[in-house]
Amino acid sequence: MTRVCFVGAPDVNVQYELLSRETAREALSTYERHTPFENSLAVDTVSLGAAVSLCNDLNWYLVRFVDLTLVREPSVAADEWLSRSLATAIRDGDVQPEETGELLAVYGLEGGRPVEPMYVTRRPDGTVPAYDLRPVEETVVVRVTEAEFDAV
Predict the structure, then answer these.
(1) What pLDDT is recorded for position 115?
(2) Which regions in the chain score pLDDT beneath 70?
(3) Rounded CA gap, 128 and 147, in Å?
(4) Paired strand residues for 121
(5) If DSSP states are collapsed to H, E and C, what string results for the chain?
(6) pLDDT, tens digit, for every residue of 57-101?
(7) What predicted TM-score, i.e. pTM, was given to this entire model?
């Protein structure tokens, strides 16, 4: 199963915004909903392609109410998320899954919500540099595209 997660902007209730709109509610109605982070809504889809398609179907809402869209594809990385752009690139065949994992955005978790990403490259030994932008209890590792990494 591929999980797609929408993390809401700080000033909106993402579950309310997505589920109160008929088109978005209908698109999400067939999925069991989860809340992996504060102010988030996540669903499990059958494949990476289905996750990317769902994001595309909901794009009008995502640009208005969502700060961060994440995709977790176990065949790519069991314990790391993919950015929406990277998930799309893998689905489209522009990037091979084994070519991912070097360029990362590490988010601190503050109050159960991802905050302030730190863009890093994975160390040669495979470890991820420690998050040092602020004190946090946990972190979330997100694999990103080269374009996302270079845009910082």
Answers:
(1) 94
(2) none
(3) 20
(4) 103
(5) CEEEEEEECCCCCHHHHHHCCHHHHHHHCCCCEECCCCCEEEEEECCHHHHHHHHHHCHHHHHHHEEEEEEECCCCCCCCEEEHHHHHHHHCCCCCHHHCCCEEEEEEEECCEEEEEEEEECCCCCCCCCCCCCCCCEEEEEECCHHHHHCC
(6) 999 999 999 999 999 999 999 999 999 999 999 999 999 999 999
(7) 0.94
